[in-house]
Amino acid sequence: MRKIEHIGIAVKSIEESAKVYETLLNTDIYKTEAVESEGVKTAFMRIGQSKIELLEATSPDSPIAKFIEKRGEGTHHIAFDVDDIEAEIERLTNEGFQLIHQTPKNGADNKLIAFLHPKSTGGLLVELCQEKP
């Protein structure tokens, strides 16, 4: 793992939350994108070498909607940048971590992604990210 790629924050409304985070972080959203497979709309802001990703549910049964219903708005996951996502999946599986995705899938911001289950990471949802070739 090379660095923290981004921190994902679940929000009810990107439009409303953007006002807060753009002011707090003194930066603008540089990209918004829908990820239909996850039922989410995303918005990204750069902070140095890392990013903040705002996540808004696009349907009431999406993982983000369920997260907000249970826990409210807030930190959803931490994503780590990796060189070779398939090798990391294999390494972490061999180390005993439980993965939500056994194979990489398309994610936002031109990434291949895979999530580790919070049950095996001390309660933290971890995302692996690799830039698509």
TrEMBL record:
Enzymatic class: isomerase
Name listed for the protein in its UniProt record: Methylmalonyl-CoA epimerase
PANTHER family, alphabetized: METHYLMALONYL-COA EPIMERASE (PTHR43048), METHYLMALONYL-COA EPIMERASE, MITOCHONDRIAL (PTHR43048:SF3)
E.C. no: 5.1.99.1
Family as reported in the entry's similarity comment: Belongs to the methylmalonyl-CoA epimerase family.
Swiss-Prot/TrEMBL keywords: Isomerase, Metal-binding
InterPro entries (alphabetical): Glyas_Bleomycin-R_OHBP_Dase, MeMalonyl-CoA_epimerase, MMCE/EMCE_epimerase, VOC_core
Superkingdom of source: Bacteria
Gene3D superfamilies: 2,3-Dihydroxybiphenyl 1,2-Dioxygenase, domain 1
CDD domains, per database record: MMCE
One BP annotation, GO: L-methylmalonyl-CoA metabolic process
Keyword Magnesium: no
PROSITE patterns documented for this protein: VOC (PS51819)
Gene Ontology MF terms in the entry: metal ion binding; methylmalonyl-CoA epimerase activity
VOC domain boundaries: 3-131
Sections of the chain in a coiled coil: none
Keyword Mitochondrion among UniProt keywords: no
Gene: mce
